[in-house]
Amino acid sequence: MAEKPVWEQIGTSFVQHYYLQFDTNRANLADIYTDSSCLTWEGQGFQGKAAIMGKLSSLPFKTIEHSITAQDHQPTPDSCVLSMVVGQLKADEDPVMGFHQMFLLKNIDNKWVCTNDVFRLALHNFGQ
Amino acid sequence: MGDKPIWEQIGSSFVQHYYQLFDTDRTQLGAIYIDASCLTWEGQQFQGKAAIVEKLSSLPFTKIAHNITAQDHQPTPDSCILSMVVGQLKADDDQILGFHQTFLLRSYSSSWVCTNEVFRLALHNL
What we know:
The structure holds two protein chains of two kinds. Chain A is of the alpha+beta class.
């Protein structure tokens, strides 16, 4: 762990926490967002912690499980951390689907919060 | 077009330009990067315009075509633009593959440059 650059440690830690909370009790995700956070969920925009939590809490599945295939982390010029995740998820009894998500993390008051979050299912118009 | 927020206009414009250049002559992509730019390509890191353009130019296919399924753009607190693209691509006669790419754009000397870029093929273990 000491060998990994700090942004990778922060990003990996965040990603692990995010999906663990998402899959067990997504109401716990409120802490990671602020009033200026933006979420784009399948093309729909949500601004601020309350709107974001409103959306995440109202997603229409009882059980959800994410499996991360790959994650990449980079430092940005403004000292933020950019994290991109590719994986698969299974909601209730639905078929397994690919998903793509990215997070921009910023250190505010000594805590890493998510200012930007974009989620898309890997559903293409043709073929797979 | 007048209805779209400015970050969406800039992001869409950048994305269109990027894939057009990539698919026709990717050696021309140099202008969108600066020396502080980072690229992570399938898990490998490249730092700075020269290293990035070298990696992109040396990718081992003759023909490439990207098809964008969806793109999302957001403004960031530091006045940058975050763009995420999900799509499919076809290299030479290989099968069509899904891909995922993210760009962080920053205004620099009156143009928008890409400071951070991450690319992954959507290849899962299962």
